[in-house]
Amino acid sequence: MDVRLPITTAGICFALLLGGCSPGDEKHAVSLEEKTAQFEQSLDAITDPKLKDAITELGGSLLLLERAQQRLDNKPSRTEYGEDALGVLRHYPTPQALVDTFINGLFVLHKDSSSDYLTDLQPVFPFVLNIPGGFLFPHGVEWQSVTLSNKRVIAYQPEWSETDPGIQLSPSSSNVTNPDDLTVTYPFIEGLNVDKKNLPRPVSLQGRVEVIAPKRLHSFNLDKKDVGQTRSDGNLSVTLLKLDTHYAELEFSNQLPLAPEVANTRLNPLIVQARDSTGQYLVRAGAINENPEQVAFYQKQLAYLQQQKAWSEALEKKLDDEQQAFEQQHPHHYNKVYFNGPIDTLEVSLLDFSEATVTRKALDLPVREFDPHTTEKTVQPLDLPITVYDDQAPDWLKGASLTEEQLKSGVHIRQSVEEPSAARIEFEHRKTFNDEMLGDDFSPGESPVTFFTEKHNGKLDEPIELPPEAYQVDPLQATITYDLNLFPETPAIAVGSMPMFLATVDKQAYEAKALPKGLEIRNNALVVDLKRYPANEWRFFVKDDSGHYLKQILSVSHDASAEGPALFGVHYFYGHPTRVETYQRTDLATVQYGFEVKLDKAQTQGAAP
Asked: Which top-level group of life is the source organism from (predicted)?
């Protein structure tokens, strides 16, 4: 949750202001709800549409900011570790080298749809884009057209048209998590059967990409002793105003103006990361980017706007002039960043856009087909001219040596009693590499559970006699579902044992020139004999000469036939492997997790008398 004003911030989701809050915020929430209701009511009296839009945006932003501040200040404290946001940049000598890798690593996958009239196209980027902490630099990709196998060129359109009788290229509506995915839609003709094999297939996708690289990045390492101090490097400076247990307040500035190439580009030059005493990176909980002085300025502007009767150029100029004057008087930018865990040290990084390199490139990308399962006998090449590392692999692979104690200590118990007929107890744990290695040869054994009533002192009373249909234990999903309507008495405590599963994993490492039989490196691909290395039991990770793990692009299983056995698998990587690590599950143990859970009370229970 990063919240920014000012008036130029567009697209604030006003509905967020009306969301729920925790019980501890009830008094504040009532006040905020009243403010929201009063503000919405005041909008009804405004007749000028431009004035109404300006007041809605600024007032809505201020209310959203107040709600965000409230939520962040009252967020329950729980340590959560994340990734190094700068990890990807640390692998490349210059920002421009990262930009070149981003552009040269882009390709397009053909994905068959379940419909005979749809074909999906998935642009694949070497770096994750659509999450916080994704690609570091400002960038944009604009799709223009697709060329079909019959040489027709279909122009891109921003949305599918129900009235267009021809072939269309538009954004995919089936995958909201990948906003760059596209769909080629063929015309549907009532009563006419279509053979998808005879339809012209997409063979290349055209577009444009633009990426802006800063002149440099500089990081300041700060801790408690730096509070109140200003640290500088050339034209960049950072002042640590406050360092609390879970948040940091700071100001930063760039004494040089923005490069002309990015003067009108919305930039976020600040990256704040925190570590706890273990040295691990903490996950950001959110940020507030306006200090009290800035908020007061916007509140004053809002009050002035609410006194006006109509929007005018003079009013717009007055607001812009006030904004510019305020920014000139306050050249430092404010940031208050919250983290999930106690802060020990800070790493504050600034992207210097006083000079910038804008890379633009026309794209004409072939559409590649890589089915997860294919009966082709030849290995299709996918050797891209870039190297990308998998920085998450070292932490992920720690799960290969997970112990029984670590497995048990990571379990969190959640309850759900909203539906009395399907109340649930869930035993959750953070997924690790151990879960990936479990396979499907489970033997959970017994999963006993007994429900008890409770004495006045909170201790166990008598066990409740229940029919078998009153509850169900699903050890593979680690859940207990019970029907309160079938309980003769209200249960207070559940006692039992839930099976967990722990794989014993054997790790081996080989140089690419000395691989065991059944493994082969071909350029950037690892070819695996699946008869010797069944996919149910084995995993493979590779490194290059740098000693870092390479990021996998995709994998393909080559099968004897649609129903036949798997013959060999191919794992494609961004880069050329020189070392292979194998991980084999050699044993699977069942670990009994004993529990005594005090049950949440349902709001309404239709228990039998």
From this structure: Bacteria
Q: Rounded distance, CA 507 to CA 513, Å?
A: 18
Q: What one-character DSSP code corresponds to residue 201? A: P
Q: How many domains does the chain have?
A: 4
The residues, any chain, with a CB within 8 Å of residue 103's CB and separated by 6 or more, are: 209, 211, 359, 361
Q: Give the contacts of 515 (CB within 8 A, at least 6 positions apart).
A: 521, 580
**CA-based Rg of the chain, rounded to a whole angstrom?**
29
Please tell me whether residues 44 and 146 are part of one structural domain. Answer: no
Under DSSP, the state recorded for 319 is H
Burial of residue 177 (number of CB atoms within 10 Å: 0-12, 13-18, 19+): exposed
d(CA 48, CA 64): 24
Q: Is 352 among the domain residues?
A: no
Indicate the pLDDT class of residue 71, thresholds 50, 70 and 90.
Answer: confident
Q: Write out the DSSP string of 550-599.
A: BPEEEEEEEESSSSS-EEEEEEEESS--SEEEEEEEEEEEEEEEEEEEEP
For the record, the structure tokens of 480 come out as 């207990």
pLDDT tens for 514-528 read 999 999 999 999 999
Confidence of residue 193 (pLDDT cuts 50, 70, 90): low
Q: Are 247 and 337 in contact (CB under 8 A)?
A: yes
Same domain, 27 and 106: no
Which 8-state DSSP code applies to residue 88?
A: H
- Which structure tokens are listed for 413? 């118990």
Are 464 and 538 found together in one domain?
no
**pLDDT per residue as tens digits for the range 360-382:** 999 999 999 999 999 999 999 99
Query: Tens digits of per-residue pLDDT, 557-574?
Result: 999 887 778 899 999 999
How far from the centroid of its chain's Cα atoms is residue 441's Cα? 31
Neighbours of 115 (CB within 10 A): 15
Q: Which residues of 188-217 are buried (b: 16+ CB within 10 A; e: fewer)?
A: eeeeeeeeeeebbebebbbbebebbbbebb
pLDDT tens-digit readout, 241-256: 999 999 999 999 999 9
Same domain, 388 and 526: yes
Rounded Cα distance, 377 and 368, in Å: 17
Strand, coil or helix: 228: coil
Mean pLDDT calculated for residue range 3-26 = 36
Residue 132 confidence class, pLDDT cut points 50, 70, 90: low
Q: Per the domain annotation, does 541 fall within a domain?
A: yes
- Residues 127 and 201 placed together within one structural domain of the fold: yes
Please give the Cα distance from 292 to 295 (Å, whole number).
5
At residue 3, the pLDDT reads 40
Distance from C-alpha of 485 to C-alpha of 468, rounded to nearest angstrom: 13
Whether residues 527 and 387 fall in one domain: yes
B/e letters for 457-485, b = 16+ CB within 10 Å, e = fewer, are eeeeeeebebeeebbebebeebbbbbbbe
Q: How far from chain centre, in Å, is Cα 297?
A: 34
Q: Is 356 contained in some domain?
A: no
414 vs 76: CA distance, rounded Å: 16
A 10 A CB-CB count for 542 gives 24
